[in-house]
Amino acid sequence: MLPTRFPSGDNSARPALLRAFRAACVLRYNIRKDASQILNHPSPPLKDRNFPYVQKIPAWRPTPDRNPELEFKILAVAFQDERAPNWNGNRFLYAAKTQDGLVVVKFTRQYCPELHSFCAERGHAPKLLGYGTVPGEWKVVVMEYIERGAESLSERASKHWTKWNNDLMMLVKHFHDKGWVHGDLREANFISPAKEPEKIMLVDFDWGGESGKVSYPTWMLNEYLIDRMTTKSLRITEENDVRVLTGSLERLQRLGVQPPNEQLMD
Questions:
Q1: Which CATH number does the domain housing residue 83 bear?
Q2: DSSP E strand boundaries for the chain
Q3: Does residue 234 form part of some domain?
């Protein structure tokens, strides 16, 4: 053991020596802690190493009879094809499973779980099951998986457009009355369940939030988001929502153009 007093009586190096000793103790503690975590939490199988190693997050508004944590296992990349890339650098989507069945897990830089939950409670969004933040300030969103079937959104719109129009206009009015905005009400963010084709749902609440306080991240936006835009501000307002939603419904009704209904991203 190194002495803390030198024969010459010069103790000027003692504080530095004590600091070094303290740092060595902290390092030893952290090495033991990391080794214990590795032993108790082995690495995932090789095939799973391309997925985020996140297996549980806080459940969304758990009740006394529910576990406050939601556990899941990521199975695959979700909705990835040449028309709808799974990620744009700020959002990643995965299919996963819980003890209750399939879910969708989304990693994103920002999100409005309150607006998502508001729409889900009214039957116009997938149920929000879990929400939390992981290192790197990534938001993790777990929602129910909605089976959409083979029929395109535009094909269903020809049969259910009037109901969809009324339901969405009323839904948007209700959350505007609460002071929220969605920010991206393009038809790419509409889904219709295979078993309930008369129902229309919204997804992608990344840009949602309090009206006038949330903003588009850039002027490099999808053409449908800037169509008929009159303001020079990136602030998202009720007027933005109504303008974009009206354009989306008009395209579904008039043009009959099949939207990329698997596309959940920009």
A1: 3.30.200
A2: 56-58, 69-71, 73-77, 91-98, 101-108, 128-134, 138-144, 180-181, 190-191, 201-202, 209-210
A3: yes
d(CA 102, CA 229): 39
| pTM of the predicted structure, to 2 decimals | 0.75
175 with 202, same domain: the answer is yes
pLDDT per position in the chain (266 positions), as tens? 555 555 555 666 778 888 888 899 989 988 888 787 767 766 656 555 678 889 999 999 887 777 899 999 999 888 654 334 444 567 889 999 999 999 999 999 999 999 999 999 999 999 999 999 998 899 999 999 999 877 888 888 889 999 999 999 999 999 999 999 999 999 999 999 999 999 999 999 999 999 989 999 888 898 999 888 888 889 999 999 999 999 999 999 875 544 444 443 33
Last residue of a domain, one of 144, 170, 194: 144
Sign of CA dihedral 228, 233, 238, 239: negative
* Domain end among 144, 179, 207: 144
Specify whether the CB–CB gap between 68 and 59 falls below 8 A. yes
